[in-house]
Amino acid sequence: MTIRKQMLVSEKTEKLKFTGKKITIIRYEKKYKALWDAFIANSKNGTFLFYRDYMEYHSDRYTDFSLMFFDNDRLIAVIPANIKDGTLFSHAGLTYGGIVSDQEMKVSLMITIFDSLKDFLKTQSINKLNYKVVPHIYHTLTAEEDLYALFLHNARLVRRDAASTIFMKERAPYCRGIKRFINQGKRIGLEIKKSDDFSAFMSIEEEILQQKYGVRPVHTADEIQLLAKRFPENIKLFGVYKDNNMISGAIIYETKNVAHVQYNASNIEGKKLGASFFLYDSLINGGYYGNKRYFDFGISTEKNGRYLNVGLTIFKERFGARTTTYDFYEMDI
């Protein structure tokens, strides 16, 4: 179905369609899945997290309110979003994700999109936008037009998480002491294997998070298994084995430019043997992710970014990682 035909179909349900300032906004429906996913695949700041098969694995927890922005017939942007208590979130169930735009997006057009979005949200009795920025490391082309539009609309920075990222082409050297663990791992016969045993790894992750913080992982073992089956090229588990037993591991979310550590955990034996050092060196310097633009260890902040886990940050920085921020804005409608 062409974009024009899809628009005409949606016109039959006027509550799903809004036109203002030359931008037409259509609320996402399942019939647009192919169009949505094709747009994400060719966007300048989209990743597999925005494909509908990823977003909808937890659809029972969120009321989807994703929007599509058209300039005449052309789909120029989308926003993965959900709605709750009069606030539009972009998207509360994702690590990041504001407006995803095509490669032709310019700042003047993004300003028009935000103007139209604000007008549209008023018609829906939505009084606030909670906006997650797509960090620059995920951009295929520079894509910060939304930051300027947020500024013009007096959006407030309400949360900033600090992640630790290695720019692979220009990286700081390892800190002293890491090579000792790497050499020890080789000497005692630790093995790195790509694994499908997500249940074994998640049991380690769940135990560690419960002991340290009294919380559970964002994903259950069944959920991460489901997502890994849907996206085998993007979600990968690497385990550290001693005598054929997994003692440590990491789940990597792989996108075009970034290898992102979604989860990392070691059991008691793995910690004692420094298995994480051995694992990360293999991922960074081995044959796995040396060709990526960035290796991202993920955030080390809690309490909406106000608390920095210094020990965790230092561990990541010992590999030469430096800070990338994951930002959250709030805008009144």
Q: Can you put this structure into words, describing what you see?
A:
- This protein is α+β, with helices and mostly antiparallel strands.
- It folds into 2 domains: 3-153, Aminopeptidase; 165-326, Aminopeptidase (3-Layer(aba) Sandwich).
- Helix content is 32%, strand content 30%.
- The protein is built from 11 helices and 18 strands.
- The chain has helices at 3-10, 33-41, 52-55, 107-123, 145-152, 178-187, 198-213, 221-230, 268-272, 275-285, 310-317, and strands at residues 17-20, 23-27, 63-64, 67-71, 74-79, 82-84, 87-90, 100-101, 128-132, 156-167, 191-195, 235-242, 245-254, 258-266, 294-299, 301-302, 307-308, 322-332.
- An 11-stranded mixed sheet has the order 3-6-7-9-18-10-15-14-13-12-11, with helices on both faces. A 5-stranded antiparallel sheet has the order 1-2-4-5-8, sandwiched between helices. A two-stranded antiparallel ribbon has the order 16-17.
- Helix 4 (107-123) crosses helix 5, helix 6 (178-187) packs across helix 10 and helix 7 crosses helix 8 (221-230).
- The protein starts with a helix and ends with a strand.
- Residues 1-14 have low confidence and may be disordered.
